[in-house]
Amino acid sequence: MTTDRPSYDDPETYARLAGFGGDWRDTWWNSDYLDLLGQRLDLGRRARLLDVGCGAGHWGRAVAGRMSADATLTGIDREPAFFDAAQESAKAAKLTANYLEADAGRLPFEDASFDVVTCQTVLIHVPDAQAVVTEMLRVTKPDGVVLLAEPDNLVMATSFMGTSVPLKATERASLLKLQLLCHEGKRALGEGDGDVGARLPALLRKGSALAIQAFASDKCAWAQPPYDDHAQAVDIKTQLDFARMDQWMPTGPREDTRRHYLAGGGTDAEFDPCWAVVLRWLRTFEQQVSAGTFHCSRPTCMVLACGQPGSGA
Ligand SMILES: C[S@@+](CC[C@H](N)C(=O)[O-])C[C@H]1O[C@@H](n2cnc3c(N)ncnc32)[C@H](O)[C@@H]1O
Q1: Which atom from ligand 1 is nearest to the alpha carbon of 79?
Q2: Which residue has its alpha carbon closest to ligand 1 atom 23?
Q3: 134 CA from centroid of ligand 1 (Å)
Q4: Residue 297: is its pLDDT beyond 70?
Q5: What's the rounded Cα separation, in Å, for the pair 171 and 20?
Q6: Full-prediction pTM beyond 0.70?
Q7: For a Cys-Cys bond, which of 192, 248, 261, 291 suits 125, CB 3.0-4.6 Å?
């Protein structure tokens, strides 16, 4: 089947492709690293949090858990279908949370409303990341902080090339080309920028932010049989779910990948052999997991950048 629309237009499909079920997204971070981040940003004395593009609420909960005991969490998303799951998990975590439907580019809040304004894996999906960051700075109090957590998916894609799944140099080159053209195409179609992690400090600076800092997550998604550590078990299960859906984590399912590849200047004739490499990787991965021979050590490539609103915000 071919389509001109993203398969993730439907919220149920989106939730599956984004891995919203369960705690996979919580395994992206080392808890003690988030504690350190909390110290660096003085989160313990901050109370009002806004999570932009909150989805099922994983990132907002992680940040809120490092804030003051009376912290309140507001999450906004353009898709309200995720709010029930977000609310349920916030309640289980004993957090005071409120989820609202809104657009990240037009936040329905007064200037200087929040102590902490954050987002995770949202700027990679919006057509104008600068507009969102500028809006995030607007609703942050003068002594508050904007915290952006976004991947560099070009780096993430290369981390899939160094696992126990054997790849020839020509196959790696095909996967890299697939990634580069998909990023180009995604940008051209106004569906986001997979490399945005590399530009976060520049986005803050252009939004007139002050005291800008950038960090990288220290999380490594490593796997080694028998995958009995909790984070490994969750990651392996999620990657198997993605493989069963024929989803290549760095670019998505076939039709979205193909659409982005063509918009990035590729041709159908070039796409098919690249996708054949993806399918071979996925099938080999499944076989290796069931044989207990799959292993990897894959940095998660999340960039964190923070800043305070400046006079121009
Ligand atoms: C990949 S998910 C990330 C969810 C959550 N931040 C997390 O890390 O678990 C991206 C989320 O951003 C939302 N989103 C994308 N564009 C948006 C926009 N313009 N305004 C509000 N939400 C948006 C999507 O609906 C989706 O829930």
Answers
A1: 25
A2: 53
A3: 17
A4: yes
A5: 31
A6: yes
A7: 192
